[in-house]
Amino acid sequence: MAGPGENGPPQKEFLIVAITPQFLERGVLWFAEHMGKIKHAVKTESFWKNNAVILEEGLEIKPGEFLRHLSDFGYEKTGMLFGKGEFTQKGNLIDVWPINSDIPFKIEFLGNTIEHIFPDMEAISHTEPKRTGSKRTLRGLKSGDYVVHVDHGIGIFRGTTANAEIRNQKPQKLNKFQDLNSKSEIRDLEFCTTKNLSGFFVVEYAPPKDRTEPDRLFVPIEQEKRLSPYIGFETPAIHRLGGSLWTSTKKRAKEDAEKFAQELIKIYASREAIRRLPYELDETMNREFAEAFEFTETADQAQAIKDIEHDLQKKRPMDRIVCGDVGFGKTEVAMRAAFMAVESGYQVAVITPTTVLAYEHGKNFVKRFEKFPITVASLSRLTHKDEKKKTLSWIENGTCDIVIGTHRLLSKDIHFKNLGLVIVDEEQKFGVRQKERFKELRSSCDILSLSATPIPRTLNFALAGIREISTIQTAPEGRLPIKTFILPHSYKTFARSVAAELERDGQVYFLHNRIETIGIVKEKLGKAIAHEMKKNARLEVIHARLPEESMIRIMEQFRDKKIDVLVATTIIENGLDFSNANTLIVDDGTRLGLAQAYQIRGRIGRGETQSFSYFAYRPKSITETAMERLLALKEFEELGSGYDIALKDLEMRGAGNMLGREQSGAINRVGLNLYCQVLAEAVEELKLTQGNGK
Where are the domains of the chain? Predict the structure, then answer.
């Protein structure tokens, strides 16, 4: 029999509510404050009767009937409680974690009667470390993370320790410092005996050749600048203290960085040598175009536009990248740049990595420019033969001011009369050949690149003056943060979430990222929705293997609200912008990387309507790392947190995009932060050398 010694104090009664969007929105406190009214409603109102149950000691209810209640409520049966919305059964004991409670409960049955109810302390003890661990992962280093010490190399972070702990250790534990050769290592030893220090970071290194246990380095907290998180494309090798490997590794990384810096400076110098006439900007026309924007620009948007104006009025071509979260207004910034170019007598090419994105941009540009005497055309595989012929002619004779398309626009058979500005959306998604063509264009055109992936600050600093960067981090006015829920996989829960969205005349993205089974999932979801709503919803499937014409047709039907639920793969990550779609359901959030999950979530919440995202997981197979990723998504619900969330994941994407694959080896050897520091020094040194005429 369970007792108070093994669990918390007995509980006379507690409430369990179903997993519904309405209840998920309510905080735990709301249920506690309204318990009296809820008790009455459970007895008198059909909605509450069907979606809530109050358990109490002595209540007669068959265990099987209670388990059916939990299943109907959308709760998932698991082997061990991992989070809210789950339950387990072992003989006459049922553990359940209600979504309306911060703690799980253990229910003990005697026959068909509830004998005892206790808070489940065992479940709390093994779930809390996971949750707090995920917070530490985001807010700072946690034990087990890789770190780089500028003097000693890559080690494993093992937390912090106080002075007393080190002073009280046996002498031989400090002797390892005396074996080290460099002055900085002896300095660390001296600091160990300083009374004024507030504590130490503990870093673990590989064992010396004559021992099996690892070495530890105590770094004074006051010297934290000598440590940085290791950010790389792969798991690093751990160094030995006092060895020569780290010195040679740093030297090699410095040589790589210097070589790359020379390439960058060469590009910089060649661009500095190119001259074109400054753009003649018409303030009146620019103001008129700006006033036609249906929203108010954010401060970051306004600054990016000002940066571009400044670039275009110089005598050398622009090469600027605009970074910003999905839905934060990069496209409007690009449209302003395009308008300035056309008003100055130039043609504009907007190049996208996919036909679908080209189609979306085409529609948006046509709508934005329709009140102005500017001709916008599209050119892709979807363009009809006759239309293509006409567009090519217009490009050549200058009739077409702005043309939007895929890398087809880079073909040698396309001749612009006076191409001035090239806008590249998500440049990193193009192939090597296209990127080489962009390099050629940089010597003759103004280039504006758009990216939803942030550039690490350290890299931004290293590239200062070589690649200009504008960052958009503020959300458009009226935009609400997306409410995010992490829940066990359940078609019943999915159906309820869909029903709640359709009841307010909205639409839903349902993400299932396996083309082979997406049809089966669509059928199961359709049946669950029909059962929940007592009527059929309109579902359609979209994925990358469909013919492009079919994809466009489905997107248009979704835009025209002829489809309620779009069952899709990660194809929705790029370019889809439907303000009426405000619910996203991901049926297995553990299959997505954190950066990708974050950017897919940005596909909803584009208007002023409250939006909801549901990331499901399968309790029987989820790993601790996968759960930490999902909890991180939940923790960073605020708008613009793409620059905080999964910083390592996003920064590696950003660094890879900016630096290219050639630099990945050097970055892996010393970590991104140290590489960028070395690169910045190399660039600055070369600039000074060239500036002095040496």
Answer: 13-130, 146-240, 283-472, 483-638
Nearest-angstrom CA–CA distance, 314 and 271: 12
What architecture is the 146-240 domain classified under in CATH?
Beta Barrel (2.40)
d(CA 414, CA 430): 19
The DSSP result for 471-504, as a single string, is: EE-SPPTTPPPPEEEEEE--HHHHHHHHHHHHHT
H or E, element range at 65: helix 63-72
For the chain, the distance separating the N- and C-terminal CA atoms, rounded to the nearest angstrom, is: 86
Which fold does the domain 483-638 belong to in CATH? Rossmann fold (3.40.50)
Structure tokens that stand for 27 in this block: 């905080």
- Residue keyed to tokens 């050749």: 209
Task: Give me the pLDDT at residue 124, please.
Answer: 65
- Read off φ and ψ for residue 320, nearest 5 degrees: -125, 145
How far CA 615 is from CA of 112, 466, 486, 629, 647, in Å, comes to: 36, 40, 5, 11, 20
Burial of 332 (0-12, 13-18, 19+ CB in 10 A): buried
Q: Just give the CATH number of 283-472.
A: 3.40.50.300
Global confidence as pTM: 0.68
Q: Closest by alpha carbon to 624, among 87, 129, 85?
A: 129
Q: Give every residue of the chain whose pLDDT is below 50, as ranges.
A: 1-5, 129-139, 164, 167-197, 643, 645-646, 694
CA pair distance 637, 645, nearest whole angstrom: 9
pLDDT of res. 137: 36
Instruction: Looking at 370-431, list the stretches that DSSP marks H as alpha helix, in order from N- to C-terminal side.
Output: 385-397
